[in-house]
Amino acid sequence: MTMLKEGRPTAPQAVREEHMAPATATGNRALMLEEPLIFEIGSNDTTGVDFAAAPKAVSRLGNLARKDAIGLPGLSEQETVRHYTRLSRQNYAIDLGLFPLGSCTMKHNPRLNEKVARMPGFADLHPLQPQSTVQGALAVIHELAQWLITLTGMHGVAMSPKAGAHGELCGLLAIRAALEARGDARSVVLVPESAHGTNPATAAFCGYKVEDIPATPDGRVDLAALKARLGPDVAAVMITNPNTCGLFERDLKTISEAVHAAGAFVYCDGANFNAIVGRVRPGDLGVDAMHINLHKTFSTPHGGGGPGSGPVVLSEALAPFAPLPFVEKQGDKFVLVEEETVEDHHGRSFGRMVAFHGQMGMFTRALAYILSHGADGLRQVSGDAVLNANYILRSLADVLDAPFGGSGPCMHEALFSDKGLAEGFTTLDIAKGLIDEGFHPMTMYFPLVVHGAMLVEPTETESKAALDQFIMALRSLAERAKAGDEALKGAPYHAPRRRLDETLAARKPVLVWTEPELAEAAE
Amino acid sequence: MSRYFTDEHEWIDVEGEIATIGITDYAQEQLGDIVFVELPAEGATFDKGDDAAVVESVKAASDVYAPISGEVVETNGALEDEPALVNSDAEEDGWFFKLRVTDASELEGLMNEAAYKKFVASL
């Protein structure tokens, strides 16, 4: 028998502790690659495409003609592809893992939606094509509109707003138009503390004075304070339901009645519709306008993955003021109602918010989602979303303070505070620790009514195994923060970059890249 | 000179008809590192309780209310270049703006230092 002594070792060798993670010559860590800015790779005389030399031409630019190199990055095709692929590996996405960003409903984007949206009959349309050639697309807008009206119990829907805050703008413009139509000048919009941060911004943008309505100790709108403030100067109340504390506003129907009695309108922020879809119809609660984030509740991609889409459902009182265009079914034809074709029943429209019809690609995805779930499936969506959030809330209640945990189950998101962490330890430390554990951090320091808030929204699309792993990670971090584990203050250790100096970045932001030589010369 | 405090964590020094206003040391500590301060325009007039300035920390942007009605006569321009002054010296060099007081009787009901300390301890 011959013994081969020079073979390849197949088992790990014992390594002394201090040699565990030596620095590499490149700065790369195996598959985690250190990537410079695109301006710092390649050279100015490289391109991915060969052009023939430009023919000699007489310049008419005079002394405006550029004399120096334009300074665009010069990369070959492969270098370009590698650059962006490498950067993408430093990113976190719903396709990589649980994305517990409260108030954002980061649910799985079913691939069926993508398949439908890419069908050439939808994907290759031009918005100015003759209507007779896009009947299928108009039918999609019309059918989605009917679903949204049915699910919310409302009277009409404006499909064109392009995202949540744009939908809020649409709703408030409709409210203002309705008030103006009856010659009623009102100047104040009331926004409870438990509402979304965009609500006061929208009201201010529309020229209204914003006034806060306090929350009750159990995290809901203070009904008495709201009623006391209603008066002839109040145009609308903007309420988020379920609210940003992850709680259902039980008094919304009473609130709506009081608001209507005072001659004002109820705007509901529908960003959290995922928690109630198929179970509660906002129209039954007296809501006059509500935007629906298709990119949240109806699973169209967002957060860098795609544009938002924020159709606004409207009550009978507001529907006549909705923006153009509309899709209408006339006989067996679908017609896009625009300025030229507007008839009496849309004559009071407040105008137009976008050039065309809205986010067509998101409409096809959302309708695919709705049809593939069906009414029963959508009802299960909200049930599972609420169940998952409560599973997280109750599984961590012994290590993290749940300020409203005592008031009963939460809706779609679990809210914790920083109460009980060791002196000097904050929500930020836990969030940074989650990065090391391989999760995108939860929403933090929002809502403002809770000190050091951690807002966790798991959505219905996570498995119990995924939730258990997340709970284990968050539990471990909470225990470390309570025990005062100093190492946690240095997290993240394993991310491509360590903890950033956010204060310095905000005080002295560097917004423009300068060539290193120039930057050095300037110093 | 007498110093008053509000339950919204502003302090007010009153000297004759001029009131100097800033946020309290407790407030800066709660806000964390201040990164930006937006001051009112000189000549602007406020009613008591109006939004008068904005203070932005790494955590959040907060409104600073006019604790008393008046006209802005001077603002602390140093804060625009060095917002960290609010962290290092909130109750002296980190002042925000000065008002010419319209109605000194509005000072009634504000807290003195001892009462404010007690109020903060109860939070």
From TrEMBL, chain A:
Presence of the UniProt keyword Oxidoreductase in the record: yes
Keyword field contains Nucleotidyltransferase: no
NCBIfam families to which the protein is assigned, alphabetical: PRK04366.1
Organism listed in the record: Sphingobium wenxiniae (strain DSM 21828 / CGMCC 1.7748 / JZ-1)
Keyword annotations: Oxidoreductase, Pyridoxal phosphate
Function (record text): The glycine cleavage system catalyzes the degradation of glycine. The P protein binds the alpha-amino group of glycine through its pyridoxal phosphate cofactor; CO(2) is released and the remaining methylamine moiety is then transferred to the lipoamide cofactor of the H protein.
One Gene Ontology biological process: glycine decarboxylation via glycine cleavage system
Record protein name field: glycine dehydrogenase (aminomethyl-transferring)
Annotated ranges, domain Glycine dehydrogenase C-terminal: 384-482
Residue ranges of the region described as Disordered: 1-23
Gene Ontology terms for molecular function: glycine binding; glycine dehydrogenase (decarboxylating) activity; pyridoxal phosphate binding
GO cellular component: cytosol; glycine cleavage complex
Limits of the Aminotransferase class V domain: 187-303
Catalytic activity: N(6)-[(R)-lipoyl]-L-lysyl-[glycine-cleavage complex H protein] + glycine + H(+) = N(6)-[(R)-S(8)-aminomethyldihydrolipoyl]-L-lysyl-[glycine-cleavage complex H protein] + CO2
Record-listed E.C. numbers: 1.4.4.2
UniProtKB/TrEMBL annotation, chain B:
Keyword Zinc in record: no
SUPFAM superfamilies: Single hybrid motif
Residues in Lipoyl-binding domain copies: 18-100
PTM sites of type N6-lipoyllysine: K59
Annotated keywords: Lipoyl
Keyword set includes Cytoplasm: no
Cofactor note: Binds 1 lipoyl cofactor covalently.
GO BP annotation list: glycine decarboxylation via glycine cleavage system; protein lipoylation
Gene Ontology CC entries for this record: cytosol; glycine cleavage complex
CC cofactor: (R)-lipoate
Purpose of the protein: The glycine cleavage system catalyzes the degradation of glycine. The H protein shuttles the methylamine group of glycine from the P protein to the T protein.
Entry similarity comment: Belongs to the GcvH family.
Subunit structure: The glycine cleavage system is composed of four proteins: P, T, L and H.
Protein name: Glycine cleavage system H protein
Organism lineage string: Bacteria, Pseudomonadati, Pseudomonadota, Alphaproteobacteria, Sphingomonadales
Gene name of this polypeptide: gcvH
